[in-house]
Write a structure and sequence with these properties.
By secondary structure, the chain is mainly alpha-helical. The protein has a single domain, classed as Rhopdopsin 7-helix transmembrane proteins, CATH 1.20.1070. Helix content is 81%, strand content 3%. It has a two-stranded antiparallel ribbon. The C terminus is likely disordered.
C-alpha cells in the first residue's frame, strides 16, 4: 500500500511540474523581460535608485528561471536530467543558480532599504539613496556572490549511487554540504532576506504614511509612494512563498524522514508546489509592468 501511495505521489509531482512550471516559466520570462525594458527605456526609472535595484533583480530572476525552473521541468516532468550525464552542467547549473538567487535577494533587500532611506524624514538618510552608491554596492555584492559560489564548481560531481546504481549530481564534501543546506539555502536564501525585507519594508511603509508632510514635488512623492507599495507587495509575497518552502526543505533533510520513502515523497510534492508559488510572482510581473507605466503619467 505504501509503495502504491508513493507511486501516486510521484505521478502527481510530475503532473504538477508539467502543468504549473511551463506556464510560470513562459509568463515569468516575458514578465521579467518587460520589466527590464521598462526600467531601461524610461529616464524616470534610470535615475531612480530603487528602480535600478529592481532592474538588476529582473535580469537575475531570468537567470533563476533558466537554471532552476526549466531544469525542474525537464527532470520531474520529462525525466530528462542533464546533470547526470554532463559534468560541466552539473557544476555550472548550481553555480549560476547560487549567484542569481543571492543577487536577486540582495537587490530585493537593497531596494527595500533604499525605500526606507528615500521616504525617511531624516535628510541624512535620504542622502544615502543615490545611484552612485547603488552601482557600487551592486558591483561589490555581485563579485562577492561570484566568489561565494566557487565551491560549487569544486565539490559538485557526478557519482554513482550505491543504492540505485544510477548517476547523481551530488555535493561530495560533507562540510560544504552542510553549509549549502543550512548556510546558503536556509540562511542566505531563506530567513535572512525575509527578516531584512520585512523589517525595512514595514519601516518604509510607515514613512510613506507620513509622506504628505514632506516638502517634495508631488510627482516625486507619488513615484516614491508607488515604488514603496510595489516593493512592499513583493516583500509580503516573498515572505509567504519562501518561509513554507524553507520549513519543508529543513524537514526533507531530517534523517528519519529521508529514510521513509512515503514521507519523503509527500514532502517532495509539497516542496514542488511551494517552489512554484515562489516563482509565481515572476509570472505576474506583466501586471506589474502595466502599473509601472502609470508612474510617469
Amino acid at each position: 500500500m505504501s509503495a502504491s501511495n508513493t507511486s501516486s505521489l510521484v505521478f502527481i509531482t510530475q503532473e504538477v511540474t508539467i502543468y504549473m512550471s511551463i506556464p510560470i516559466l513562459t509568463f515569468g520570462m516575458v514578465g521579467e523581460t518587460l520589466n527590464c525594458i521598462v526600467f531601461l527605456s524610461l529616464q524616470t526609472f534610470r535615475e531612480n535608485t530603487c528602480a535600478f535595484y529592481l532592474t538588476i533583480m529582473s535580469f537575475v530572476n531570468i537567470g533563476q528561471l533558466l537554471t532552476s525552473l526549466f531544469p525542474r521541468i525537464m527532470i520531474n516532468g520529462f525525466n530528462i536530467d542533464w546533470t547526470k550525464t554532463l559534468s560541466w552542467y552539473c557544476k555550472f547549473r548550481i553555480y549560476i543558480l547560487e549567484i542569481c538567487t543571492l543577487m536577486s535577494y540582495t537587490c530585493m533587500c537593497l531596494a527595500t532599504i533604499d525605500q526606507f532611506f528615500v521616504t525617511s524624514l531624516n535628510p541624512r538618510l535620504q542622502q544615502l539613496s543615490n545611484i552612485k552608491l547603488a552601482r557600487i554596492l551592486s558591483l561589490i555584492f555581485f563579485f562577492v556572490w561570484i566568489l561565494h559560489a566557487i565551491p560549487s564548481l569544486i565539490y559538485l560531481n557526478i557519482i554513482v549511487l550505491p543504492t540505485t546504481n544510477e548517476n547523481s549530481c551530488t555535493i561530495t564534501n560533507f562540510i560544504f554540504l552542510q553549509y549549502f543546506n543550512y548556510g546558503f539555502v536556509i540562511t542566505l536564501a531563506g530567513f535572512l532576506p525575509v527578516i531584512t525585507t520585512l523589517l525595512f519594508g514595514f519601516l518604509a511603509y510607515h514613512n510613506v504614511t507620513q509622506s504628505a508632510f514632506r516638502t517634495v514635488p508631488f510627482i516625486r512623492r507619488e513615484l516614491d509612494k508607488q515604488l514603496s507599495i510595489m516593493v512592499f507587495v513583493e516583500v509580503v509575497f516573498n515572505c509567504f512563498a519562501t518561509i513554507p518552502y524553507i520549513i519543508t526543505y529543513i524537514l526533507m533533510n531530517i534523517p528519519t524522514i529521508t529514510n521513509d520513502p512515503l514521507k519523503y515523497t509527500q514532502l517532495t510534492l509539497a516542496s514542488t508546489v511551494l517552489i512554484h508559488m515562489y516563482y509565481l510572482h515572476y509570472a505576474v510581473s506583466m501586471k506589474i509592468f502595466k502599473k509601472y507605466k502609470t508612474l510617469i503619467i
